[in-house]
Amino acid sequence: MPLYKSQTLKIYNSLSGEKETFKPIHEGNVGMYVCGPTVYSNVHLGNVRTFMSFDVIFRYFLHLDYKVRYVRNITDVGHIVDDVDEGEDKIAKKARLEQLEPMEVVQRYTVDFHDILNAFNFLPPSIEPTATGHIIEQIEIIKTIIDKGIGYEANGSVYFDVVKFNETNHYGRLSGRNIEDMLANTRDLDGQSDKRNPQDFALWKKAEPQHIMRWPSPWSDGFPGWHLECTAMSTKYLGNHFDIHGGGMDLKFPHHECEIAQNEACTGQTPVNYWMHANMLTLNGKKMAKSTGNNILPREILTGDNSILSKAFSASVARFFMLQAHYRSILDFSDDAIVAAEKGYKRLMEAIESLKELDSKSNSTLDIASWKQSCYDAMNDDFNSPILIAQLFEGVRFINLLKEGKETLTTTDLKDFSTAMQAFVFDVLGLEDEKLSDSNNDKLEGTVNMLIEMRKQARDNKNFALSDQIRDQLIALGIQLKDGKEGTTFTI
């Protein structure tokens, strides 16, 4: 019997504002779409946290024996700077600034995105479609919306008529807004726009002569609206009605609101049963922003090459830290917090390692079945990873009691306990055991420090060729030297 039949999972649905019992459209199958990155820059830590939340959700569905089709897109065109309908595409702007072809920008940052997610032990989605690979589907959706009388063309661009749509539907119900208030709080267009109403949004934008990303359409050479891309890709691979749509809290309005409107305009039905939104990540109690310097990239956590953290931290430690907060809660990242998380992570890994050394007895004095169900209860309560982690540390307490001989388990219970601990830690939470031999670390550090001293002597003797050779060969091995006032340090 599949595991999902014995577990009742509840999901917080952003659409209803309540936790609802999960009932898939097709028994034993889950269709889940998550808005992926716009690949015009390095993936930031807040993105990693959002995608990690849905990685754990994906993992738990798989653990429950569901067959899951997980679709996470790549936005490689159409996302306008500042998330509005007018202005420059984010990727085109980056290409212009760096004097590259737009697809060079896309390739560079898509590779970075995959590298970072691989480092953090993410499972790949079932399908990872790109916006540029689905231009034909987007054009067909626009045609349907125009035919339904809810889309209109103006000077080569096509817009979605929000007021017309709202006559028979409710635009704003996901974000708790109503159209009258939105219209009252926006300035009059004064003939400066082709839109009929301020809240109308672009389905297709005519490309200006200088715009380098463009495709032919019945209305103009141009490019699709940002919101349209996800509608096209989600429905193509999951159908007009699917189980789960997820993303960051910042996408609820206008992006997801517009997606709902587009789907309902095309099909006449609600597209998604459960809308899920992950909350934001702050740094030292403040919003992360490159402009203020209050910012750290995921790779900088792993290398230690930053001015915020006291040292480098492994990907699993960073992952463990993030999962200590519920995905719908704001999480504050700081040096003290991740240092504390590292201690907890090591304690958990040491306990799991010592499971191998435990001997079974003739009777059990611990209720493993109840403990295991408490782990499921945590995840069944809207994927509550912090409560699961608390239960796993209850498991650590069990392990210590067993080691001390104060409690006992039969062979069957010991195997069940060990299997459950490892399943929740490695399969569901996606942690990895990253213990490195301390003796090997000491040997590596000693060797690199010896080479640093040799390099210093070479520089003192003005033998810069040898100095550069030592530095370059260390870089080739993945060891970065950093010269400072107090000497030279290194990161791997």
UniProtKB/TrEMBL annotation:
Matching Gene3D superfamilies, A to Z? Cysteine-tRNA ligase, C-terminal anti-codon recognition domain, HUPs
> In which compartments does the protein localize?
Cytoplasm
Where do we find the motif 'HIGH' region here?
A: 37-47
Entry GO MF terms: ATP binding; cysteine-tRNA ligase activity; zinc ion binding
Q: Where is the Cysteinyl-tRNA synthetase class Ia DALR domain?
A: 374-437
Q: Where is this motif: 'KMSKS' region?
A: 287-291
Keyword Lyase assigned to the entry: answer is: no
Residues annotated as binding ATP are K290
Q: Which cofactor does it need?
A: Zn(2+)
Q: Which Pfam families match?
A: DALR_2 (PF09190), tRNA-synt_1e (PF01406)
Q: What is catalyzed by this enzyme?
A: tRNA(Cys) + L-cysteine + ATP = L-cysteinyl-tRNA(Cys) + AMP + diphosphate
Q: What is its EC number?
A: 6.1.1.16
Q: Does the keyword Ligase apply?
A: yes
Which regions span the lipid bilayer? none
The cofactor note reads:
Binds 1 zinc ion per subunit.
- The residues listed in the UniProt record as binding Zn(2+), with positions renumbered to this chain, are C35, C230, H255, E259
| InterPro entries attached to this UniProt entry | Cys-tRNA-ligase, Cys-tRNA-synt_Ia_DALR, Cys-tRNA/MSH_ligase, Rossmann-like_a/b/a_fold, tRNA-synt_1_cat_dom, tRNAsynth_Ia_anticodon-bd
Its Gene Ontology cellular component terms are: cytosol
Q: Which UniProt keywords apply?
A: Aminoacyl-tRNA synthetase, ATP-binding, Cytoplasm, Ligase, Metal-binding, Nucleotide-binding, Protein biosynthesis, Zinc
Q: Which GO BP terms apply?
A: cysteinyl-tRNA aminoacylation
Q: Provide the primary localization.
A: cytoplasm
Record family assignment: Belongs to the class-I aminoacyl-tRNA synthetase family.
- Subunit text: Monomer.
HAMAP family from the xrefs?
Cys_tRNA_synth
Q: What's this protein's name?
A: Cysteine--tRNA ligase
Gene encoding this chain?
cysS
